[in-house]
Specification:
Length: 329
């Protein structure tokens, strides 16, 4: 089977490509950075340079393919130029869907985010949850809009076969950047460079191991139903438990200082102010991101487990694999 992957040099995209190759797939993949592509050493891949704003390179990449994994996304804390979230995450997705129609692609797996379902105000989040409050970030808003367009314009009106996967907070071995911020936080703690506990440490998040998420993408291709969402997550744990397990696994123990959300908001607003003065300074965290720390994000993966055969790696085991990776790089 021949597949096309967007975002081939990203955190999830790279792991997905390696998994596909191991399974015997023929892979075409989109990339922007020559340096990142060369660092991966994936010579078996037919690489296409360009990005999802250019339909011509998307059409080249999909030529002769059976399926598409649309993983590419603009996933940053602060958009460099106003409108970038919509440009890449909405219009870019429209371009991918158009190219899929043009090339008679049999199935598209679209990577969204579990953040679109909102915090767990009224019980555990699942695929039927509707966010009780407006989305926090431009990233979440753009992903929610992209899903709306896919379902209403491309599935219902044009008959395109698209399945949507919604990862939670993904972590594990891989490039250490904004897209892999949870892993970066684990590494900084082990190195004694992280001493902050968001709020009182009791807020719950859902943490998904990268290998599970990648396998979930393939399961969605094989078994996912058209127009359905599947949350790809892991265990629900508090920040305090998160760091307790990291400490236990790494045999490193550092004092964590609880930081009130109001103080964190103040710092985030300072970052935004700096951006207004120095436009090249991109805030590493924004007030919208800080606000999320006040809420629980308890999430269920039962639908993916029951329909796709999705499996969750226990958090402690996933952290052990991540810590081992740190020792090898």
């Amino acid at each position: 089977m021949k597949v096309f992957v967007t975002g081939g040099t990203g955190f999830i995209g790279e792991k997905l490509i390696r998994h596909l190759l191991n399974k015997g797939f023929e892979v075409n993949a989109l990339y922007r950075s020559e340096k990142k592509k060369n660092q991966l050493g994936l010579v078996q891949v037919n690489w296409i340079q360009g990005d999802i704003t250019d339909e011509s390179c998307l059409n080249r990449g999909m030529e002769g393919c059976d399926a598409v994994f649309h993983v590419a996304a603009y996933a940053v804390a602060w958009e460099e130029h106003p409108g970038d979230f919509r440009k890449y995450n909405v219009q870019g997705t429209v371009n991918v869907m158009n190219a899929a129609l043009n090339n008679k692609i049999k199935k598209v797996v679209f990577t969204s985010t579990a953040g679109i379902f909102g915090p767990s105000f009224h019980g555990t989040i699942n695929e039927k949850s509707v966010s009780p409050i407006p989305h926090f970030t431009g990233y979440e808003r753009s992903k929610a809009e992209a899903e709306y367009v896919i379902i209403n314009e491309y599935i219902k009106k044009k008959g395109l076969n698209v399945v949507i996967v919604n990862p939670t907070r993904v972590f594990g071995p891989g490039a250490l950047n904004q897209s892999n911020s949870t892993t970066l936080m684990i590494k900084k703690y082990i190195e004694g460079k992280w001493h902050f506990l968001p709020g009182d440490g009791r807020a719950i998040g859902n943490y998904a191991f990268i290998d599970d998420v990648v396998e979930g993408h393939l399961q969605a291709l094989e078994k996912g139903r058209t127009g359905e969402n599947y949350i790809l997550g892991g265990e629900n744990i508090s920040y305090q438990k998160f760091f307790d397990i990291v400490s236990q696994v790494s045999n490193k123990k550092y004092r964590l200082i609880p930081i009130p959300v109001t103080l964190m908001l103040g710092v985030a607003y300072c970052f935004v102010g700096l951006n207004k003065i120095y436009s090249r300074f991109l805030p590493p965290i924004t007030p919208a991101h800080v606000s999320k720390f006040s809420y629980n994000w308890e999430t269920s993966c039962n639908k993916a487990i029951n329909e796709l055969g999705y499996k969750i790696t226990p958090f402690e085991q996933a952290v052990k694999k991540t810590v081992l990776y740190f020792k090898q790089i």
